[in-house]
Specification:
This protein is an all-alpha fold. 57% of the residues lie in helices and 0% in strands. Among the domains are: 50-113, Helicase, Ruva Protein, domain 3 (Orthogonal Bundle), CATH 1.10.8.640; 119-145. The radius of gyration is 33 Å and the shape is flat. The N and C termini lie far apart (93 Å). The relative contact order is 0.06.
Length: 165
């Protein structure tokens, strides 16, 4: 009986310790920084002039964030997007053209980085697949409609033509 009461008191002490830890830890969460994939840019980009900024904005809006998938490089707050924006600006300042910068990023991250993949033999299905599916669907629908259309000449054979077989 004594062993049972010792276990109960240990269990109660453990429960009290756990409750105290939780009560102390919950208020601390309110002051903790959010842990997420998003990060703030520590030093905003500085542009030499308006033309450089306009070119930069146009270029990064055509590039996809490799982490966020459906956000452009311009819209993403992920740390890799900040790094890539800096990389793009550095490449621009080296004198590279937009096409050279895009080729550099495609070589590093693949076609995925482009919002509009190039029309090449390996992307034909991506570009022309939807039109092909619509065309095949239209042919199937047309055949079904023709098959079920009533015969206008009235030459249709009555299913009960009086023959026995």
């Amino acid at each position: 009986m004594k062993a049972l009461s010792r276990r109960a008191s240990r269990s109660a002490a453990t429960a009290v310790l756990l409750a105290a830890t939780l009560l102390a830890g919950v208020p601390m969460l309110a002051f903790a920084p959010p842990a997420s994939a998003q990060a703030s840019d520590p030093a905003p980009l500085r542009f030499r002039d308006g033309a450089e900024e306009a070119r930069f904005r146009a270029l990064v809006s055509q590039l996809r964030c490799v982490m966020c998938q459906n956000q452009s490089l311009a819209d993403s707050n992920a740390q890799i997007a900040h790094d890539l924006r800096r990389e793009v600006l550095d490449l621009m300042r080296e004198g590279r053209s937009d096409a050279e910068i895009e080729r550099f990023l495609v070589a590093r991250y693949g076609e995925f980085v482009l919002y509009r993949p190039r029309v090449e033999s390996k992307t034909w299905l991506l570009w022309f697949g939807p039109a092909l599916l619509v065309l095949v669907g239209g042919v199937v629908v047309a055949r079904i409609v023709r098959r079920h259309r009533p015969d206008p000449a009235g030459t249709r054979i009555d299913p009960d033509d009086g023959q026995e077989w």
